Amino acid sequence: MNQYWVYMLTNVNNRTLYIGVTGDLVRRVSEHRLKQIKGFTSKYNLRKLVYSEVFTEVDAAIAREKQLKGWRREKKNALVEESNPEWRDLYEDILP
């Protein structure tokens, strides 16, 4: 069974959010943390995983990513705070 994740990254002071979708959450977040992906996440030092959702269908994951990207920042913050009220880095939690 395939799995796909929608995830949110932020920086150390939680000021900037990035929302992405991937089929390998550990690998993708690791790439962001090591700045192997040039662009927005490396420019703003977004390396702290604060939220993720898992899906079995890639189309559902992509639709959710697009939905979240369309939300206002306050609504995104509330979603993170439901499961991660301290905005702690969840990267260690996803490691095998």
Describe it for me?
- The protein has 96 residues and is of the alpha+beta class.
- It has a single domain (4-94), classed as GIY-YIG endonuclease, CATH 3.40.1440.10.
- The chain has five helices and three strands; from the N terminus they run ββααβααα.
- A three-stranded antiparallel β-sheet has the order 2-1-3, sandwiched between helices.
- The longest helix has 12 residues, at 58-69.
- The radius of gyration is 13 Å and the shape is globular.
- 22% of the residues are buried.
Strand numbers in spatial order across the main sheet: 2-1-3
The CA-CA distance between the termini, in Å, is 18 Å
CATH topology: GIY-YIG endonuclease
Radius of gyration, in Å, reads: 13 Å
User: What is the overall number of helices?
Assistant: 5
Give a quick precis of the structure.
Helix content is 42%, strand content 22%. The protein has 96 residues and is α+β, with helices and mostly antiparallel strands. The longest helix has 12 residues.
